[in-house]
Amino acid sequence: MARRVLVVDDEKGVREALRQLLEYEGIEVRLATSGQDALDAYAEVHPHLVLLDVKMAGMDGLETLRKLKESDPAAHIVMISGHGSIQTAVEATQHGAYDFLEKPLDTDRILLTVKHAFERVQLSAENERLRASVVDRYEIVGKSAGIRGVLKLIDQVAPTTARVLVTGENGTGKELVARAIHGRSPRSSQPFVEVNCAAIPGELIESELFGHMKGSFTGAFADRAGRFEQADGGTLFLDEIGDLSLQAQAKILRALQEGVVTRVGGSRSIKVDVRVIAATNKLLEDEIGESRFREDLFYRLNVVPIAVPPLRARREDIPLLVERFVAELAGPASRRMSPEAVAALAARDWPGNVRELRNTVERLLILASGDTVSAADVERLGGTAVAGGAAGGVAVGDLAHSPTFERFKQDAERSFLAAKLEENDWNVSETARKLDMPRSNLYKKIERYGLQRG
């Protein structure tokens, strides 16, 4: 980077000596003779480092320091004083000075201080870039009514301590919702700990969540903190919580009620301050009816419900998502997606939702025949996700292609309900009566499956 330094001193000899020294090192130098001159110059050149004299006529260095930090809290400023004192150095540090140099200035000390300051500037810039890349990676993309509703709920619930239950099909972006809530909460600087409850064997889930003591079971070679302890002060995201055993559910309920956990094999209760966000692709009300999920835990978790719509219910977001994925995956000189290809992608149903769409875009960018992905490439390489109509149903013949039994049940239920709603001209009350189903339950399923009137 082109390194820039602003030298502020009312003594011409000091200014010129510093300029000569720094320019010899290949550094761009701007000079200022007063505090106000420094403020004007800083706004103009945005230097990476300021060397600022403490004692100047008019606005002194400490006042200039305060004003510079007010205008740019990230400003890196080294104070210079011919009348240095501990009190002055402490005051300068309290107002955000990076370092403090005394006159007469030592050449080696100046160069070392400037070197370290530039290293810190570069590190800060790298951290900002990494933070921005993390934000981009987990950004929720979309402008549809369904996504706007989700974003509104996130903004409302994030500043609170309320527990949130995120529901939606696999691949809809439930984790993104959880991360967005954490990132906009007062706990954002604390840990975000994720647990995929479906991926951990049942016999290990309690150890994973609550930790264990050495020797408590075969393979427990040392004491280990669980995810609740790791998330202390921050957020614990329990993904696919509907797959937890009833025994583990009972322990989570106690942790939520009392704010304490006990490690497997331990007897001491450990106090934790954790915000829990849970997610599931199941209808927990149905799981409760089948005695597979505790009703009391459901009400503990479901303080604020957020339903993430499936991709087929927000087709207008598909071009935006494709644009984002191409930018992430293709690079500046690689393949592009033709408007016809984007339209072909938007016309399809996506049983795997955003995750499936991203995988398809990546496959097209790798395997397409030309520099630009065409609609023919989408037809040839884009998989078998065919649109199922405005109501969101799935053709009966396509049910046999469902990847899992759970997906088959969901697709079958979606198609059945879509057909019954069409039969009754989308009269929800009449449809619920004929199906012998509570109207509130039917409304939840309509929302869950993203069913829309054709």
The CATH class assignment of the largest domain is: Alpha Beta
Number of helices: 19
Domain module tally: 4
Q: How do the strands of the widest beta sheet line up side by side?
A: 2-1-3-4-5
**Percent of residues in helices:** 40-55%
CATH topology type of the largest domain: Rossmann fold
* Count of distinct strands: 16
Q: Quaternary status of these chains?
A: single chain
Terminal-residue CA separation: 57 Å
* C-alpha geometry: extended
Structural class: alpha/beta
Spans where pLDDT lies below 50 across 5 or more residues: 388-392
Alpha-carbon Rg, integer = 30 Å
Please describe what this structure looks like.
The chain is an alpha/beta fold and 454 residues long. It has 4 domains: 4-134, Rossmann fold (3-Layer(aba) Sandwich); 145-307, Rossmann fold (3-Layer(aba) Sandwich); 311-381, Orthogonal Bundle (Helicase, Ruva Protein, domain 3); 396-449, Arc Repressor Mutant, subunit A (Orthogonal Bundle), CATH 1.10.10. Helices cover 47% and strands 14% of the residues. The chain has 19 helices and 16 strands. It has helices spanning 12-24, 35-45, 61-71, 86-94, 107-137, 145-157, 174-183, 205-210, 227-230, 246-258, 284-289, 295-301, 318-329, 339-346, 353-367, 375-381, 405-423, 428-434, 439-449; strands at residues 4-8, 28-32, 49-53, 77-81, 99-102, 164-167, 192-196, 211-212, 224-225, 235-239, 260-262, 269-271, 275-280, 304-307, 336-337, 372-373. The strands form 5 sheets. It has a 5-stranded parallel β-sheet with strand order 2-1-3-4-5, sandwiched between helices. Strand 4, helix 4 (86-94) and strand 5 (99-102) form a beta-alpha-beta unit. Helix 2 packs parallel to helix 3. The protein is extended, with a radius of gyration of 30 Å.
